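Risk mitigation, structural track. In case the binding assays with iron/sulfur cluster fail to produce interpretable data, a predicted complex structure has been prepared as a fallback.
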Amino acid sequence: MNIRPNAILEVDALERRFDVSAPWLNRMIERKPRRTLHAVDGVDFVIQRGQTLALVGESGCGKSTIAKLVTGLHAPSGGSIRFHGDCDRLQMIFQDPFASLNPRWRVGRIIAEPLRTLRPDTPDAAVNARVDELLQIVGLSAADGSKFPHEFSGGQRQRISIARALAGEPEFLVCDEPTSALDVSVQAQVLNLMKRLQNEMGLTYLFISHDLSVVRHMADVIAVMYLGRIVEIQPTADLFARPLHPYTRLLLDTIPDLEAPKRDRTAMGGEVPSPVSPPSGCSFHPRCPLAFDRCRTERPTRRAEVLDRRVACFAAERDAADAP
Ligand SMILES: Nc1ncnc2c1ncn2[C@@H]1O[C@H](COP(=O)(O)OP(=O)(O)OP(=O)(O)O)[C@@H](O)[C@H]1O
Ligand code: SF4
Ligand SMILES: [Mg+2]
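Fallback model:
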């Protein structure tokens, strides 16, 4: 992969395996082999500075593992992650703002912490002024700094998490399901706040969600994941206008249609298989309405002619070849 002038993050053939074997003694008694889980299985993408790349897919497809690889909480089992930015200025926002905020600290101290870490010589008065300012930027008040996290609603707590992330003067934010724990109306407010902050501060987001209707409003480029792999990646408008992978089409079918809410929606058929023993060939074939013989034996790779527009599907390849 060539370095692109505006790329802030380049992820290439990234892999992460977990040993999920039973404990040694059990394995010996029950004569069970070691078991390996491929949580991330050859993933590549590029994020342009100031843009948002979204990772979407069902539970267990490897989204959070990628977030942890990018932020250094996990080491890769293979492949590479190249960050063309200041590593100190990478911050993460988690799904559960309560679990990620220290319940015994006042909010002001929580927000001040990354600032003090980044600039240890800052005088207290300047730290306090900046904390007040950050609280206001995220739509809270300076007085909120003296309260504890439990005194806030879920949406307000997520605003506190955002203020804390901003205190580290980030240029790159990894946001793992930042609004999935919130009510729909509160979700929209927090998403709008994140969008506004991105525009004002030129932030870059890796935005993770299981919900295509959420990423539609946030992302420049969407990567759809299935069982540890990206099956399709396209600019957002194109993905919605012309989804190429059968799995993407199924995902799109399950999001509520505001214009025709009563329309019958086909539920996604079948369970997601286990990443410990994924199906042969195209791992989506047991659920795919278009599967044919080749899909059961051969693994489709994403054709790499354009980095931001790729699909890993034999049927889509065939259609592209047939098109004039
Ligand atoms: N530390 C770990 N040890 C063993 N297996 C793990 C570990 N972390 C994740 N996994 C497994 O890796 C796979 C991917 O998990 P991951 O949390 O990345 O999925 P996800 O897409 O974020 O799902 P969700 O939408 O539920 O958050 C899952 O099968 C999960 O059980
Ligand atoms: S490669 Fe085959 S099984 Fe996989 S998504 Fe395409 S048509 Fe379906
Ligand atoms: Mg997750």
